[in-house]
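quick one, 129 residues, struct below
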Amino acid sequence: MKNPVAHFEIYGDDPEKLSGFYSELFDWTIRKVEGMDYWLVNTVASGPQGPTEPGGINGGIMKRPMPDARNWLNYVSVKSVDETIRQAQGLGATVLRPKSPVPAMGWFAVLADPELNVFGIWQDDPMAK
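---
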C-alpha cells in the first residue's frame, strides 16, 4: 500500500470527557500527552513509533480547533508534506492548516479537496521540531 491512512483525530469541547467515552466504548488505550492539551489514542498494540500490529491505526483527541469542526480527521501517510501540498493545490485543493511539526515525530498539514472534504497528510520525521 503506497499511502495508507496514518492517523486520525477526534475533536471536542471537552477532550478529557471524550477520552473516557472512546476508551469505554471501544476499549482503546488513551493517555494525555505531557505538556499538551492532547490525548493519544491506541486502537491496537503500539510502540513508540505507533501501531505494532499490521494495519493498525492510532490517533488523538484534542480540543476542537474550529467551531464547526465536528468530524474525525484522517491523515494519509506521505513521503513529503511539501510535495503533497504542491500536488494537491495543483489539483484544486486548499490548505487549511499549513505544514506544522509534531516534535520528534513528524510533519502534518490539513487540506480540503475541491469538494471541501477535509483531510490531513502526515510525514514521519523523528528530527521534526
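Strands lie at 5-12, 29-32, 38-42, 46-47, 50-51, 58-63, 72-77, 94-102, 106-112, 118-124.
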